[in-house]
Amino acid sequence: MCAISSRLGTGTASVKNTVCAKRHFCVQNKLQRSQERKGNPLKYDYKTHKEMKWWLNPLFRAGYKRRLEEDDMYQVLAEDRSEKLGQDLQRIWDHEVQRATKELRKPQLTGVIVKCYWKAYAVLGIFTLIEETIKVVQPILLGKIIEYFESYDPNNTRAFHETLGYAAGLSLCTIGLALMHHLYFYYVQRVGMKIRVAMCHMIYKKALHLSSSAMGKTTTGQIVNLLSNDVNKFDEVTIFLHFLWVGPLQAAAVIGLLWYEIGPSCLGGIGVLLILMPVQSMFGRLFSKFRSKTAALTDSRIRTMNEVVSGMRIIKMYAWEKPFAALVSEVRRKEISKIMKSSYLRGLNMASFFCASKLILFVTFTLYVLLGNTISASSVFVTVSLYSAVRLTVTLFFPSAIEKLFESRVSVRRIQEFLTLDEIRKNTVGLPQDEKDAAVEIQDLTCYWDKSVYPIFASTLYHHYQSSLLSSILGELPAEKGVLRVKGQLTYAAQQPWVFPGTIRSNILFGKELNPQKYERVIRACALKRDLELLPDGDQTLIGDRGATLSGGQKARVNLARAVYQDADIYILDDPLSAVDAEVGRHLFEQHYKVCVCVHRSGHMVAKGTYTELQQSGLDFTSLLKKEEEEEQQQPHHDTPIRTRTLSQNSVLSQTSSVQSIKDGDQLPAEPVQTFAEENRAQGTIGMRIYAKYLTAGANIVVLLAVVLLNIMAQVHRDPPVLQEKLMASSNMTNNTENGLNVTKELDMDFYLGIYGGLTAATIIFGFGRNLLLFSVLVRCSQSLHNRMFSAILQTPVRFFDINPIGRVLNRFSKDIGLLDSNMPVTFADFVQIFLQILGVIAVAASVIPWILIPVVPLLLIFLYLRRYFLRTSRNVKRLESTTRSPVFSHLSSSLQGLWTIRAFGEEERFQKVFDAHQDLHSEAWFLFLTTSRWFAVRLDGICSVFVTITTFGCLLLRDKLDAGAVGLALSYSVTLMGMFQWGVRQSAEVENMMTSVERVVEYTKLESEAPWETQKRPPPDWPSKGLVTFDQVNFSYSADGPQVLHNLKAMFRPQEKVGIVGRTGAGKSSLVSALFRLAEPQGKIYIDGLVTSEIGLHDLRQKMSIIPQDPVLFTGSMRKNLDPFNQHTDEELWSALEEVQLKSVVEELPGKLETALAESGSNFSVGQRQLVCLARAILRKNRILIIDEATANVDPRTDELIQKTIRDKFRECTVLTIAHRLNTIVDSDRILVLDAGKIHAYDEPYTLLQDPTNIFYKMVQQTGKQEAAALLEAAKKAYDSRSRPGLSNGHAVTADGNLVIFETAL
Question: What is the predominant subcellular site recorded for this chain (predicted)?
């Protein structure tokens, strides 16, 4: 029943947006520390970045000595803050949405991004232009130097001085190139980061405002994927975009210069280039096609993962790991097939880049020679250098730009679709202000959840009309017809309690300032006082994801306390009394001024009024409430609670608010509370072991050897042509000067061209072959690691999920696996290619001019030292970047679960601020990642430009000893080597950084595993035939180092016996169930029909017991899959089970009946209906043992009655253990087991226990109030009288000294 209570007084305290959400791993402190963190050096000295990033040196020194922590990061710059960036972009987007609505078109997100960032980004095009111009000028200067050597005259000093000028120009070009390149890269990556951060801000903001219909069109998985993978495309696309216009410009300039250098022969090579460009553009389009398909599959996989991780406890108890593994592996298989196709395309793209230069040079020089020209050293080297300048742009950057552009278009489209989903419209009309009291007025209201089905308040499709009425008052359910007016401040307590990661206090205050007196009153009123005394840190205890560290009752009471603490006029409480006992319920309602009770039947309002008015109206509404009418005294004048709930002590800890307070000395043990460990970050270098694990995951030794061989073959065939060109140049020159015989020259040419052509063809074949094979292996590695990680996650004990937030696990499955799927293969293949090319270049150069090795060796040593020095810090930064990303996902996941609560309290802005704070923390790590990469690259390029300068002037010094060919080789190679060397070292560092993702995935493949699912010892097929359960000296703790929660338990549950289990919070009721299901391994022995449960496989055990859990869990998929994931039952059996639980009519009215796909987590069903689905699962399993874990805590009395009736009828032949929530459900049990502090306090028939005033059960019954206690005693007596008793109490007896003796016969 719904209670809408309004209190006197209209003064509402101002909501202060204090961020008091204290995250797991104490993120509150982190966020505060980030405010106090070192100021960003760029903020104070904006010119430092133009130098060599000296301000990073202290960080590198620290990183070299120790592991970097979050305190070492610099504060994020003001212009990079998530809030500022998000609001700027949001403003333009809102404007675009308004315009699009007027013009009747879809809003365009691409235009919004361009409008917001085009100025900052366009300026960076100048850097690119200058950089690419330098690349074109370099070969001309090189040509001039070689020309001097070709026509060398020792006496011509003028020519020598000119050449010195050219040499100085060449050196300046290399230095200018180094600086320009890194300035450009740093700034474009900053722009990419800004777009990504702004986009994340907008996505989260949108998620907070989604309407209920829009929530049905998206899923948590999709939103996580948008935040983890789609937005990353902005980081990538900004790097290459300028090459779309610089590329063609540069190509045009190079064609002009080539025409001047070698005439029309250049057209052959340019032709090859022009053919390559459209082919690669076509690849780009294909990429985009595969990307959108992959993204949809990734969404689906992450959504499933989110559900699996959230519902792992239930999955394990049902032994449903295998169907979920099949589900995920099927989605993953489809995803990998798309990734494999796009990887092959990438491989072809890279191979075409690798082979392009050889093909172009072969075509050009063949034409040049066939046209009868004579090759000179300068023409060879200038041509080669010009081609390599344009080749990088045209065959690598230009296609990358197209590929990234198409990929980001897909991402923009997906984000745009999400941003244009319907938002919630709070369209309640305010009441006239002259009315004194707060009020809610409803007239002729008709509402729809979904227009395609009947209206909520006029149909029998859904049974949660009460919740729907509240939803419409909250504005979550839009009114179709009628009037709904609300005056006053609202507050709301949801039926399914929601708590967010943080302290208990921050959950109750929920952004309000602490008023100690009021806070204390609320704590007492909501029966939380005793809970807080028991928890180790009181109200500062950290709650984990989904409140994993609290019991169901505690969560519900925190949820209620949050609503009560707010200064509101109207309190909307959706079934809050399931969390408090009758006394506390009365106490709560006595504090409120008015109580309005509406009675609904099938969506129509039958009557309304106060509780007393309805009782006197003669309407049979008490059949709904199951209120006992045998009252001994006159109905009191004040309003009484709507529904009397009788509760076990599990949900009522605090008796401070009850009349009977706990007696002195009746102390309870502190309940073990799990706190969240900080996320693991590996330390030190990434060992060869991780590389070996990564590569052997996807291929065996033979395949890996084949890859190595192919790589070597491709390189060997690629490099001789270079040597060949030089020899051609030398031989032609010799032939011309010394020997004019044409015959010899032609013979030589045929011979050379034949070999040259053969080598070029071999290069192409091996180049393409090795890339396809390498990419195939690397994608398989990713697939294999994902599968291993998932199977490890499924087999790890439940405790892992209690101490690790969802975001942390999802981060591994979304971001880290995403990196391994798409980025790792490209970077790894590129590194291998560059590494082999460097070796090839050095080998060829050394064979012609051995002295070139003299500067190469020290250079190599300096590079390797720098790389090692850099990686120490870089790895730490990358690991920090990974761990600071997890809270972003956790916060999103948590916010989506409590969306209605956040909106009802009007706390969207505060949650947005917390999200922005998490984003800023991540941006600090990302900023360091960008700047440290540049620090490294600037130093590498600096060293290289020194090398080029030395080589250039060295050649001029040794001008008497060198010929033109050797000088050309030395100079062109030093320039090539400079680019290659530093790129190679950077790619190797990048691979090492990406290996941190492999390391994180590998860490999860080695999680502690629970006992095997099946063992050699299999129970008989009909086991258990009786359902006799015996606990023999059982001790239990949730982890090896955790406290014991059950102590030396000895008890027996006879076949077909109905046993109620009661006790205070922390008494061990749920632990008893955990021990029975072996969610952690118990010590001692548990027998079921004489078989020791620890000797058989977990699936054999868990499949033979049914459980109806406290929190009903449904999974995305069809209703059939939710009832019968193994497809073991016929349609008739499924319909029959649904009929038993009165859900048949509901499911029949769904569009696809049993095949209807449920919304995420079954959110299109009410909590009661979800609980009934769990009951139907238990009916289908037909097991001899049924455990009911507070199953009726969140359902209305009618559903409760239905569940109890079904259990009595359908499970008459079963042993039923019920963890009691309402005492009236177990008072007629055969026996009641009373637990206290993990020990058996008493175990007997209810009536017998009620004869002993010292008994805990007796006290619990008394605390329900006089009339309820009398009714319970009467019910217990009635059951006692009607029962026939065997002589011996259950095969065990209590001796005089109180010890429990289990008889042999019982075992």
Answer: membrane
Phi-psi region of 641 (alpha: psi -120 to 50; beta: other; left: phi over 0): beta
SS3 1059: strand
Please name which of 944, 940, 947, 945 lies closest in space to residue 985, comparing C-alpha atoms.
Answer: 940
Q: Cβ of 1163: how many Cβ atoms within 10 Å?
A: 15
Q: Give the pairing of strands 604-609 and 542-543.
A: unpaired
Q: What is d(CA 955, CA 968) in angstroms, rounded to the nearest whole number?
A: 10
> What per-residue confidence (pLDDT) applies to 1152?
76
Nearest CA among 1113, 1088, 1112, 1115 for reference residue 1102: 1088
* Dihedral sign of CA atoms 539, 540, 546, 547 in order: negative
Please report the beta strands in 170-223, taking only residues with DSSP state E, as ranges in sequence order. Answer: none
Of residues 172 and 156, more confidence is placed in 172
Distance (Å, whole) CA 331 – CA 338: 11
Residues 6 or more apart whose CB falls under 8 angstroms from that of 66 comprise none
Neighbour count for residue 26 (Cβ, 10 Å): 17
Distance of alpha carbon 140 from alpha carbon 129, whole angstroms: 17
Spatial distance between the Cα atoms of 9 and 686, rounded to a whole number of angstroms: 64
pLDDT over 80 (residue 388): no
Give the chain's radius of gyration (CA, Å). Answer: 37
Question: Looking at residue 1191, what is its pLDDT?
Answer: 65
Nearest to 844 by CA among 716, 669, 736, 996: 716
Side-chain half-sphere CA neighbours of 239 within 13 A? 18
Q: Please state, in angstroms and rounded to a whole number, the distance separating the CA atoms of residues 301 and 297.
A: 6
Backbone angles phi, psi at 930, to 5 degrees: -65, -50
The helix (run of H) or strand (run of E) holding residue 742 is helix 742-795
Residues making up the chain, counted from first to last: 1307
Rounded to 5°, the CA angle 273-279-282 comes to 145
Q: Find tokens 């305010």 and name the residue.
A: 430
CA distance 953 to 948: 9
In angstroms, the CA 774 to CA 350 distance is: 12
Structural element, H or E, at residue 590: helix 582-590
**Is residue 748's pLDDT more than 70?**
no
**H-helix segments, 493-536:** 504-509, 516-525, 529-534
Residue 1062 pairs in a beta bridge with 1234
Report in angstroms the alpha-carbon separations of 183 from 60, 127, 192, 980: 20, 8, 14, 19
**How far is 985 from 621, CA to CA, in rounded Å?**
79
Helix (H) or strand (E) holding 895, with range, is: helix 886-897
Give the residue with greater pLDDT, 579 vs 707: 707
DSSP 1034: E
- The answer to whether 753 and 369 are in contact (CB under 8 A) is yes
Longest dimension (CA), the chain: 132
CA 361 → CA 395, 722, 760, 1009, distances in Å? 14, 10, 10, 58
Of 537, 501, 437, 526, the C-alpha closest to 518 is 526
pLDDT of residue 740: 34
Please give the Cα distance from 930 to 53 (Å, whole number): 12
* Coil/strand/helix, residue 452: coil
Long-range contacts of 179-184 (CB under 8 A, 24+ apart): 179/938, 180/127, 180/130, 180/131, 180/134, 181/131, 181/937, 181/941, 182/934, 182/937, 182/938, 182/941, 183/49, 183/50, 183/127, 184/124, 184/127, 184/128, 184/131
CB 1244 within 8 A of CB 1292: no
Q: Categorize the per-residue pLDDT at 1296 as very low, low, confident or very high, splitting at 50, 70 and 90.
A: very low
User: What pLDDT is stored for residue 21 in this prediction?
Assistant: 36
For residue 669, say if its preceding peptide bond is cis, omega within 30 degrees of 0.
no
Contact 697, 785 (CB under 8 A): yes
With CA atoms as reference, report the closest residue to 662 among 1262, 1267, 1268.
Answer: 1262
Average per-residue pLDDT for the chain? 75
Q: Percent helix, strand and coil across the chain, each rounded to 5?
A: 65, 10, 30
886-897 and 157-209 helices, crossing angle to 10°: 20
